[in-house]
Design brief:
The protein has 190 residues and is α+β, with helices and mostly antiparallel strands. It has helices at residues 28-46, 59-67, 113-124, 140-149; strands at 9-13, 16-22, 71-78, 81-89, 96-104, 130-136, 153-158, 179-185. 26% of the residues lie in helices and 31% in strands. Strands 1-2-3-4-5-6-8-7 form an eight-stranded mixed β-sheet, sandwiched between helices.
Length: 190
């Protein structure tokens, strides 16, 4: 299914519509705050934080993903209300795409919204050969979601003795205790 960038993709779940809508030019700051709120909820549950630590992910990291060539961002909507979002990195040459950020607001977890939103993303980019994403070692909910709900496979574990060669923050802001790298092949030959 080929869609233009301004079209909204939609699926229904339990009588409610789950949709993707492209991020508008005036949505950027509120979108970044929503990403941080969702990510910080998981971090606060698992890691001690000091008051002087900034938001996770940092504004600069989100902005870099939004500005990267091939960067595409969507709001996840439930009955027209913003309940999450996604930032993708689409490589039209290799069709090996990446999920930079994906979130559903904590108040609506466990309703299948993320899984339907991911299905919409796959439908939006049918030429994709593979998807890649990362998540911290302690994010059990994310690991379960990517592996058990979306069909990703864990292909690498980055940590102090095996740093991610593409991580600009290696040894800095990244989670020094480890990050999983996931891949999902979309074709049997990929």
């Amino acid at each position: 299914m080929n869609q233009t960038e301004d079209e909204t993709l939609r699926h229904d779940i339990e009588g409610c519509g789950v949709a993707l809508a492209p991020l508008g030019p005036n949505d950027r700051l509120s979108f970044m705050r929503d990403v941080q709120e969702a990510f910080m909820t998981g971090v606060r549950e698992q890691l001690p934080m000091t008051p002087d630590e900034g938001p996770i992910p940092a504004d600069a990291d989100i902005a870099a993903s939004l500005e990267r060539p091939g960067g595409v961002a969507f709001h996840i909507l439930l009955d027209g209300q913003r309940v999450g979002g996604a930032v993708l990195e689409i490589d039209t040459a290799t069709h090996r795409n990446a999920l930079a950020f994906f979130f559903v607001k904590p108040g609506v977890h466990g309703r299948g919204i993320g899984q339907l939103a991911w299905k919409l993303i796959e439908e939006r980019f049918p030429e994709t050969l593979s998807w890649e994403t990362h998540t911290p070692y302690f994010e059990k909910r994310n690991i379960h979601f990517y592996v058990n709900k979306c069909g990703f496979k864990i292909v690498e574990f980055f940590h102090e003795r095996h740093p991610d060669p593409h991580d600009a923050h290696a040894g800095g802001e990244s989670f020094e205790d480890g990050m999983f790298r996931f891949e999902k092949s979309m074709r049997a030959t990929a």
